[in-house]
Every structure is written in C-alpha cells, then in structure tokens.
Amino acid sequence: MMESVFGSVAAQCVLLYLQNYSEGYARGIAATFDMSASQVFKQLRKFEKGGLLVSRAIGKTRVYSWNEQNLLVADLRSLLKSLLEALPESEVNRYYRQ
C-alpha cells in the first residue's frame, strides 16, 4: 500500500505491526508476515537508529516499542492508524488480530 513511502514492504509491515500491537520482536513480526527474521531485524534496527523506536532486552529477546520522546512519532502513528483503518477486513483479521 505505502511501501514507496516507507521504503519497503518490510518497513511498512514492521511499522503497521508496531502501531497495532505497540511493541514487538523480530521473530514474532517475521512469523506474522511470513518474512525472514533478519529482514525484520534490519528494519527494527534502522528505525531504532533513526530514533523512532527504542528497545529493551527481555531475557534473550530484544523487544521494540515506540520512542515517545521523538516528536515525529505521534504524527507517524496517526498516519499508520489511518492506514490500518483503511485495510480490508480480511487483511486486518489475518495480521492484526492475534
């Protein structure tokens, strides 16, 4: 849908997942969208380096969530919320109602 804006389908999936669930980890996001964990991890690291996300270790798992200190996050989340609302119900049920 908006992969040209976000740079890739993987980036779009990661951001929509985090918008819907508020936090996530690479393997869980990858399993949801049937992607490689390395592909998702690359996007998570990119967004963390850019200041949109923060992460914390829970055991051996690195969990990512929104960096609410970043002034762009509120606007980005508003856009993502609109995108989620525009998705077909079948897609919402498949990816965002776990």
Question: What would you note in describing this structure?
Answer:
With 98 residues, the protein is α+β, with helices and mostly antiparallel strands. It has a single domain (3-88), classed as Arc Repressor Mutant, subunit A (Orthogonal Bundle), CATH 1.10.10. It contains six helices and three strands. It has helices at 3-6, 9-21, 26-33, 37-49, 73-86, 89-95; strands at 23-24, 53-58, 61-66. Strands 1-3-2 form a three-stranded antiparallel β-sheet. Helix 2 packs across helix 5 and helix 3 (26-33) crosses helix 4. The longest helix is centred in the last third of the chain and has 14 residues, at 73-86. The protein is globular, with a radius of gyration of 13 Å.
Mean pLDDT: 92
Summed up, the domain count is: 1
Cα radius of gyration in angstroms:
13 Å
Here the CATH topology equals Arc Repressor Mutant, subunit A
Report the top-level CATH class: Mainly Alpha
CATH architecture: Orthogonal Bundle
- Main sheet: which strands, in order across? 1-3-2
Class of secondary structure makeup: alpha+beta
Major beta sheet summary? 3 strands, antiparallel
